[in-house]
Every structure is written in structure tokens, then in C-alpha cells.
From TrEMBL, chains A, B:
This is Transcriptional regulator. The keyword DNA-binding applies. The keyword DNA-binding applies. PANTHER family: HTH-TYPE TRANSCRIPTIONAL REGULATOR YODB (PTHR33204:SF37), TRANSCRIPTIONAL REGULATOR, MARR FAMILY (PTHR33204).
Amino acid sequence: MDPRCPTRQLLDRIGTKWTSMAVKLLAEEAPGELRFAELRRRIPGISQKMLSVTLQSLVRDGLVARRVEPTVPPAVHYRLTALGLSLEDPLSALRDWAETHMPEIDRNNQLADESPLD
Amino acid sequence: MDPRCPTRQLLDRIGTKWTSMAVKLLAEEAPGELRFAELRRRIPGISQKMLSVTLQSLVRDGLVARRVEPTVPPAVHYRLTALGLSLEDPLSALRDWAETHMPEIDRNNQLADESPLD
DNA sequence: CAGTATCCTACCCGATACTG
DNA sequence: CAGTATCGGGTAGGATACTG
């Protein structure tokens, strides 16, 4: 198996802390857009810097499109591209699995904590 | 959106460098088992330490089962649990997407490198 | 409003050596 | 064979301050 396989490269992207949340919010809005500040409001705990870094990476990958209204102050809108939207299918499958099975994983970890002799 | 949502917790696990490869190899073998050294051989570049850490984490989560034959030297076998096997569906969907679309993402990044003024 | 620019810390991961 | 122990570098990510 190749440690540089496409799957690993993809996980290096969507595995970063805020990426999956940004993609989900933009997917819910698709084909509409969200502004920088609106995304910031909907992702509790994210800093301006991390939202900026996250979105730049998504734009660079071609998963998200950035549109600037040249007003003062500027209004910047983000939306998923067709490529980004196509990622929603496997990503929502992963979300469904997580919501269904993460509680069981949590229980398994608690059991491991209670029986440290295994 | 909750930054501690199940999806993020799941990505924190399968997003680590070697986890998705270990799961894939064990899934291909399911319901059979693989030994430590055999996994090591099939994951080029992984160190003993990282394979050990990766497998321990998977066992702790209940995604992988560990079976020790008390011989000298010991023979340790790993296999996916039912829970681990259920993860294969969304994970293979993600792999399929990665193989199909990562080349396009690579091209997008190359274009971004060539046009730094955007 | 939508970003940059710095600084700093935690921790993932690799390299290496050792062991029952 | 299947681990554990230890050390160290690189980097993701947080806090804070500044700007067109």
C-alpha cells in the first residue's frame, strides 16, 4: 500500500480541524453562498486566522469558490464548486456513520479506562 | 455547529497518518486476520512504533480485535470487529472519491502555483 | 468586513535503541 | 516476534495585534 495514496491526501485535507465543518455549512447552503463573517458565526470557536487558512486551502483545491464584491468594506462570498459538492456524498456517509457509531466508540474507550489490565 | 461533533471525533481517528491504511488492509482480509509483521510489511514506511500506536488506538476504539497466541515468541493477530467492518462502507466511498477526484485537486493546486496573483 | 502578521505551544510522527 | 522507551524536529493550530 502506498502511504501517499489519494485517500491519505484527501484525509490530510478534510482531516484538519475546521475543514469538514466549513464544507458542511457550505453544502447546506448550496448552491447559495455564505459570507466570511457568517461562516465564522456558525463555527463556534474558530478564529479569523483559522477560518481564513481553511477557506484558502479549500479555494486552492478548487472545492470552494471565492467571490469578492468590491465595496467598502468588501463583502466576500464563498460557495462550494461542483467538485466540492461532489464530495458531499462520501462525506455525508461518513457523518451518518459517525453519528450512529461514535457513541459506541466512546463506550469502548471508557471500558478500556476502567479495565487497564487488558 | 459543534466543533466536538461526532464527525470531527471520527476524523481525528481515521485522519491520523496510518490508520486508514491499516483498516483497509484488515478489511481486505476480513473476516480473516493479519499478524503484526505482515501488516508492517504491507504498509511501506511505517515504523514498529507507529504501527503499534495505530493498532492500540484501533483496539481501544473497538474497531479492531487483538488475539495473542501464547507461543514463544508470541504471535499476535489482528482483525476488524463488526464495528470496524461497518466503517468500511463510508470509508470505501471516501477512497473511491479520492481516486476519482484527487488528480483534479492536484491540477487545481498546480494552477494556483502558476498564477500566484489570484 | 475580511483579512495579515507574529509569536507560541502542543503534539504527531520519525529515528533509534532496548526487551520478554 | 511484537512490542516499549526515549529523544527530537516539524507543523497544526491558538492568542493577540494590526490593516485596507
